[in-house]
């Protein structure tokens, strides 16, 4: 076959994996190669459920564990310069899975036993690394989903009601990725 008319192989151009295991794959469809300059002329999309594929589930967990390790090793230097004082709705405490360890639960549970705290304030964790068993429950307000411990203070701002005892994952949250900050400045 003449090289210039070979089909381009199918190549994956984008992968997106959400916390529920939905893997969206965008790929360049094989097209007839008429020039030496490759151009994407057609793309396709497939959506896979990672939990339906044992190999993908295992690899995704490994990838997340490795990525997490690198993220922890290379914290963002801008984190300390973020000022949340003017923030009203605290979107950082909404729509995330707030994963908690037994140590976090011990900090938060007060007089409750671990088991009672877990029943009252946690759900089973959605966690790719498999490290966490629980995440904090969420509930709804007029803005949307929020962490069970996010409450409105006397000034009308949403604030963490367990700030001093908040879980490690909240302490590690990278505020540099917060979109809210642009509207506050
Ligand atoms: S990190 Fe962002 S959303 Fe969270 S309190 Fe600060 S400004 Fe608000
Ligand atoms: S525990 Fe506090 S800081 Fe963490 S998500 Fe909930 S309200 Fe936000």
Helical content class: 10-25%
| Mean pLDDT score | 83
Question: What overall geometry do the principal axes of the alpha carbons give?
Answer: globular
Instruction: Give the low-pLDDT segments.
Output: none
**Cross-sheet strand order for the largest sheet:** 1-2-3
Number of strands: 10
> Any idea what the radius of gyration is?
22 Å
Q: For the report, how would you describe the main beta sheet?
A: 3 strands, antiparallel
**Domain module tally:** 2
Write out the distinct hetero groups bound to the structure. Answer: iron/sulfur cluster
Strand content: 15-25%
**What is the chain-wise order of helices and strands?**
EEEHEHHEEEEEEHH
Report on the architecture of this protein.
The protein is globular. A hairpin with a 4-residue loop joins strand 1 and strand 2 (22-28). The protein has five helices and ten strands; from the N terminus they run E-E-E-H-E-H-H-E-E-E-E-E-E-H-H. The chain is α+β, with helices and mostly antiparallel strands. A three-stranded antiparallel β-sheet has the order 1-2-3, with no helix packed on it. It has two domains: 8-66, no CATH class; 84-184, no CATH class. It binds iron/sulfur cluster (2 copies). The site of one iron/sulfur cluster has 9 residues, from helix 5.
